[in-house]
Amino acid sequence: MYYRIVVKLIFTITVVLSLSIAHANEEQNISLSKPPTSIMQWYKPNNKRQVWLHTMFRLRREMQAIAEYSAYQDKRRLVTWSERFVKDYQSIGKMVPEWADELEVEWGARLLSAAKSGDFKGVGAAQRKIGKSCGGCHKEYRAVTAALYRGASFKDVMIEDDETMEESSFKKSMGGLSSSMNRIKIAMVDSRFEVAESAYELMSKRLKDLSGSCSACHKTDKQRNYLLGEQSMAKVKKLGALIKAKEVKQAQQTLGGVAVEICATCHSIHRTLADLREFIDK
Ligand code: HEC
Ligand code: HEC
Ligand code: HEC
Question: How far is the CA of 109 from the centre of ligand 3 (A)?
């Protein structure tokens, strides 16, 4: 009797556990849809302009103009904007043929004829129907498309050592930057000031090398100066002085400031998206 209760209990626990593990796994899996590759030709560098994105901006503007002129009951302008809209809306299916079926083409035609006949209510109804097709596609594809075709990839960016002229991958350089930074922290905690000083020299040098890499993509110094310009570098210099003066507490605070201002800011601009892109691109 006792034995059977124990077996039953173990069985129940096992079922509950495996159910909750299955449930947890279910929650951990997400699925993302990649856009058809035919969209690639509408993006740089395959195209001179970001054609896809600009079509989208026009669509939003045209939808707004249609709603506004409809509210004013300004038929002439409403028709003009509706014609522009229908043309751009249909171009989605021409640019990416795989998406032609996702469009409410008939509702586009109805929108235009409602506009022409001054049926403002009909225009509104058609806009709502069409709007659902915008939202449906965006939910599934917008973020992934932006990450893939507009997010910067650092896979092929190299960092050059200013002294030896040797190149290393971006990822490897990041590892080096991080270890020199942590070495400063560890050494300061343990009052090993000479080690902290040499780790500081290494970190400064690596930051300088890093700032040489921004121009691989950025045409001006604006972005580099924002993160690695005078202000940030002054903070880095201050850190050096504090280490030399053996000001443990202040040095640690300044180190934290550098990590947030330079590293974390750039990571929120560049790293998360680069990670996501690499993951999607596999
Ligand atoms: C079949 C797919 C599809 C349909 C339909 C579609 N879009 Fe898009 N749209 C996209 C994709 C993909 C992006 C992401 C482009 C990017 O960020 O590079 C996008 C991005 C946008 C953006 C840019 C958002 C931003 O702020 O960066 C706007 C605005 C937009 N769409 C408006 C519209 C409107 C309005 C409609 C309907 C009339 C529409 N789209 C229909 C696929 C679609
Ligand atoms: C592989 C290409 C690439 C490299 C290398 C790169 N960036 Fe960027 N960066 C971009 C792109 C693309 C954007 C987004 C611009 C956009 O979407 O309009 C961007 C945006 C930024 C922004 C946001 C503000 C703005 O003006 O766009 C900052 C700040 C920035 N980068 C800093 C840097 C710094 C600092 C470096 C060097 C340490 C660097 N980037 C290296 C491609 C790159
Ligand atoms: C261009 C802006 C930028 C700046 C500034 C920057 N990082 Fe990064 N960091 C990145 C990007 C992008 C990646 C992802 C690279 C990849 O995986 O290819 C990355 C990845 C890393 C990684 C992970 C490396 C690995 O092996 O996966 C570490 C650690 C790191 N950064 C530390 C730092 C530290 C510490 C600083 C400041 C001293 C810093 N980063 C400054 C953009 C930046």
Answer: 50
pLDDT of residue 10: 46
CB 89 within 8 A of CB 56: no
Number of the ligand closest to the Cα of 133: 1
> Which residue, among 263, 278, 138, has the nearest Cα to 206 in the 3D structure?
263
- Find the 148 Cα to ligand 3 centroid distance in Å: 19
Q: Whose CA is nearest to atom 11 of ligand 1?
A: 142
Q: What is the pLDDT of residues 132-180, one digit of tens each?
A: 999 999 999 999 999 999 999 999 999 998 888 899 999 999 999 999 9
Report the separation in Å between the CA atom of 214 and the middle of ligand 2, taken as the mean of its atom positions: 7
Q: What are phi and psi of 164, to 5 degrees?
A: -90, -10
Sign of CA dihedral 57, 59, 60, 65: positive
Long-range pairs, 206-209, Cβ under 8 A, ≥24: 206/173, 206/176, 206/177, 206/180, 207/177, 207/236, 207/262, 208/162, 209/159, 209/160, 209/161, 209/162, 209/173
Does the C-beta of 263 come closer than 6 Å to ligand 3? yes
